[in-house]
């Protein structure tokens, strides 16, 4: 079960990133070019938010069954000094939950705005901050600090 969820979590990360990048493209385009907020813009906002929230649910499920996190929680005094264990036990989950909260707040605030320009601006700002947090907290294969494969097999 753990390895299957890990592979799914790894795969969904790409949907989250792509949907967030597309929503940001639409948001900055609309904001800077003073475009009309369309159904496509709204759908991109919703898709990015839902993809992130689905990823969060799978990530939380993984967190509670992970042997790495289990070790971290039961050996905190020693584990907090081990970079890879600390990353998955504390840093990754904290930063990703923060990013998903920002995406959710940004999405809700954008939905409430009256003008198209305000909707785009709100999405652009909140989603950009969330994306930067996400990019800094993914265990990229090329990271010197913590690395994992870009794609996991089932």
Order of helices and strands: HHHHHH
Oligomer: single chain
* Helical content band: over 70%
What's the gyration radius in Å? 17 Å
Domain tally: 1
Strands, count: 0
Distance between the termini: 10 Å
Mean pLDDT: 94
Detail the poorly predicted runs: none
- Category from helices, strands and their pairing: mainly alpha
Give the overall shape, derived from the CA principal axes: elongated
- Main beta sheet, described? none
Compute the number of helices: 6
Provide the β-strand percentage band.
under 5%
Describe what this molecule looks like in 3D.
With 154 residues, the chain is an all-alpha fold. The protein has one domain (2-137). The protein has six helices and no strands. The chain has helices at residues 2-32, 39-65, 67-74, 76-79, 83-112, 116-137. It is elongated. 27% of the residues are buried. The mean pLDDT is 94.
Helix-strand blueprint:
Elements lengths: L1 H31 L6 H27 L1 H8 L1 H4 L3 H30 L3 H22 L17
Overview features:
154 residues; mainly alpha; elongated
Summary?
This protein has 154 residues and is mainly alpha-helical. The chain has one domain.
